[in-house]
């Protein structure tokens, strides 16, 4: 579906629509269920997205972002985001003009997030069992909807055993080679991990306890987004 809009020194002559609907060649759905939709967004250098409506979401920037956001009232702002950044965003209606090189983001939309997020300032001093307490799983941020970890495992390093008990999306920022050992079982064979891949895991119904070894020569980095409700 295409949207026509005009800027004549006033508001655009259009109604906002879903990003995938207005730009299907740039925004593709990687996973969708009743709770979340995961969208991979590609914006070529100096290209633009038409007016669209964004829900509450977690955004993982796989490349640097240098964009101008223009809202329906005509106001705009320019933002820069580093590659590898992860952040929470509230709903917004805007056009996006890419002012730099090609952009690739993974956008995790929360379908059932009906109220503004209430951020958690920091994790509890004594971590409950449902937190990932391994030292390589770095707590990034949390609200009533999500808990986000920035996982960075140095080469040759093995994490401690840790428990995944929430449904989650993992965004593999780096590629690499890893081995996994589930509690009470032998190590699995090393596997190659494709960079920028996205996976969904339903751990709420079947929690797992495992540890991970980075068998590669570079840091292994994953963003883990757990869904708390």
Task: Give a topology summary.
Blueprint lengths: L16 E2 H4 L4 E6 L3 E8 L4 E7 L2 E5 L3 E6 L5 E6 L4 E4 L2 E7 L4 E8 L26 E6 L3 E8 L8 E3 L3 E5 L3 E7 L8 E3 L4 E4 L6 E7 L5 E8 L2
Parallel strand pairs: 1-4
Antiparallel strand pairs: 2-3, 3-10, 4-9, 5-8, 5-10, 6-7, 6-9, 11-12, 12-19, 13-18, 14-17, 14-19, 15-16, 15-18
Descriptive report:
This protein has 1 helix and 19 strands. The chain is mainly β. The strands form 4 sheets. The chain has a 5-stranded mixed sheet. It has a 5-stranded antiparallel sheet with strand order 2-3-10-5-8, with no helix packed on it. Strands 11-12-19-14-17 form a 5-stranded antiparallel sheet, with no helix packed on it. The longest helix has 4 residues, at 19-22. The chain is globular, with a radius of gyration of 19 Å. Mean pLDDT is 93; it is low at 1-13.
């Amino acid at each position: 579906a295409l949207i026509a809009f005009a800027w004549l020194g006033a508001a655009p002559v259009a109604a906002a629509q879903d990003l995938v609907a207005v730009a299907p060649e740039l925004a593709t759905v990687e996973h969708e269920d009743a709770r979340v939709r995961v969208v991979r967004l590609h914006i070529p250098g100096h290209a633009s997205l038409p007016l669209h409506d964004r829900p509450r979401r977690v955004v993982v920037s796989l490349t640097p972002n240098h964009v101008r956001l223009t809202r329906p009232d005509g106001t705009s702002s320019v933002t820069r985001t580093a590659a590898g950044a992860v952040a929470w965003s509230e709903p917004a209606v805007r056009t996006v003009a890419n002012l730099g090189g090609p952009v690739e983001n993974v956008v995790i939309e929360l379908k059932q997030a009906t109220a503004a997020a209430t951020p958690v300032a920091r994790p509890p001093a004594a971590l409950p069992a449902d937190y990932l307490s391994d030292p390589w799983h770095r707590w990034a941020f949390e609200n009533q909807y999500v808990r986000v970890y920035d996982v960075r495992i140095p080469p040759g390093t093995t994490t401690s055993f840790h428990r995944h008990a929430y449904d989650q999306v993992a965004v593999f920022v780096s590629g690499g080679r890893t081995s996994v050992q589930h509690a009470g079982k032998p190590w699995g064979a090393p596997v190659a991990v494709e960079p920028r891949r996205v996976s969904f895991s339903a751990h709420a119904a079947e929690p797992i306890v495992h540890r991970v070894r980075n068998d590669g020569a570079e840091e292994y980095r994953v963003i883990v987004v757990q869904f708390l409700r």
